[in-house]
Amino acid sequence: GGPLLSANSQFRFKTLGFYFEPEIVTFMPNQMLIWSAKGPAGTSGAHAWYIEPTPGGCHVVTEEAQRGLLLFFIGARTRGTLLNSHQEWLRALKALAEAR
């Protein structure tokens, strides 16, 4: 809940060659973040980040759901790239958290 991220805030990023401008639909600091976005050719998606406290810090679980006819045709080809992108996000998040 600050100047960079809060409920109903928007941001922009590029993945798999497409730009997305998601809106934060659920924001519970240190617990949960969910955003949704419209994509190309009538596609849409939502991405959730769940933060679970642990004795040594936290455990982050992330899930994504997508829908749209275009995804039916390209989904199998982009799945690996998308999973690698998610892994990179988690790696970067871990590195940033541990650097504090």
What's this entry about, in short?
This protein is an alpha+beta fold and 100 residues long. The protein contains one helix and six strands, in the order ββββββα.
Relevant terms:
four-stranded antiparallel β-sheet, 6 strands, two-stranded antiparallel sheet, 1 helix, about 100 residues, alpha+beta, about 40% strand
Topology diagram in text:
Layout: E1 13-15, E2 18-20, E3 23-28, E4 32-38, E5 44-54, E6 57-67, H1 69-99
Antiparallel strand pairs: 1-2, 3-4, 4-5, 5-6
Q: How many E strands?
A: 6
What's the gyration radius in Å?
A: 15 Å
How would you state the average pLDDT, rounded?
83
Label the structural class. alpha+beta
Report on the biggest sheet: 4 strands, antiparallel
The strand order across the widest sheet is 3-4-5-6
Distance between the termini: 18 Å
Helical amount: 25-40%
Strand residue content: 35-45%
* Low-confidence regions: none
Apparent shape? globular
What does this structure look like?
The protein is of the alpha+beta class. It has one helix at residues 69-99, and strands at residues 13-15, 18-20, 23-28, 32-38, 44-54, 57-67. The chain has a four-stranded antiparallel sheet. The protein has a two-stranded antiparallel ribbon with strand order 1-2. Strand 1 (13-15) and strand 2 (18-20) form a beta hairpin. The longest helix is centred in the last third of the chain and has 31 residues, at 69-99.
